[in-house]
Amino acid sequence: MPWKGDYYPNGRPVHLFRGLDGRLYKSKGERDVADWMYAHGIEYAYEEPYPVDTRSPKHRRQYRPDFHIDGTDVYVEYYGTDRQGNVPVYFDAEDGKTAGETYADTIRWKRDLHRRNGTKLVELFAWQRSDGSLGRRLRRGLRRNGVKVNRRRKKS
Predict the structure, then answer these.
(1) Nearest to 135 by CA among 53, 37, 3, 5
(2) How far apart, in whole angstroms, are the C-alpha atoms of residue 16 and residue 6?
(3) Which residues contact 78 (CB under 8 A, 6 or more apart)?
(4) DSSP labels for 18-85?
(5) Is 22 exposed, middle or buried (0-12, 13-18, 19+ CB in 10 A)?
(6) pLDDT digits (tens, 9 = 90+) for 119-153
(7) Nearest of 10, 14, 126 to residue 2 by alpha carbon
(8) Which residues lie closer than 8 Å to 150 by C-beta, 6 or more apart?
(9) Pairing state of beta strands 120-125 and 44-46?
């Protein structure tokens, strides 16, 4: 359920979605990732600045990964693409490229940034949310990178 307020990146309204932890997330997919981690006892930060300064003429803002697993060098990114790498029509394009090309460049930049800095990146995609494999893939990626995943919390 969207929050009552709106978020305005680039002057356009976007609904925010409240997670089980009470925080607000910019997409349903990010909210679902957060809810899964919350339900499995994984402590995380949402969109906090990456520990290395990433600003440059091409990347004017500091990189803020979707999630950082507390006490680790593991980060989680949720990308809004289908299986073919297509993005929603409202995604932004830059430098004469299509929105898909711009987004693919951003994904490559993030992968390279983590590789260069020795941090671990778990990548998730919108199509995994659609096909029901998001939680399974998140669990696998976290465990592969040494994050202990607890059993699902029981509802009170």
Answers:
(1) 37
(2) 6
(3) 27, 29, 30, 33, 66, 67, 124, 125, 126
(4) E-TTS-EESSHHHHHHHHHHHHTT--EEESPPPSS----SS--S----SEEETTSSEEEEEE---TT-
(5) exposed
(6) 999 999 999 999 999 999 999 999 999 999 987 76
(7) 14
(8) 40, 41, 42
(9) unpaired
- Does the global pTM surpass 0.90? no
Instruction: For residue 124, give the H/E element and its range.
Output: strand 120-125
Separation CA 65–CA 98 (nearest Å) = 23
Q: Is 143 helix (H, G, I), strand (E, B) or coil?
A: helix
Phi, psi of 123 (to 5 degrees): -105, 130
Going by CATH, does the domain composed of 16-144 fall within 3.40.960.10?
Answer: yes
Element (H, E) at 115: helix 99-117
Going edge to edge, which strands form the sheet with 44-46?
44-46, 67-69, 74-79, 120-125
Sheet strands side by side (includes 2-7): 2-7, 14-18, 24-25
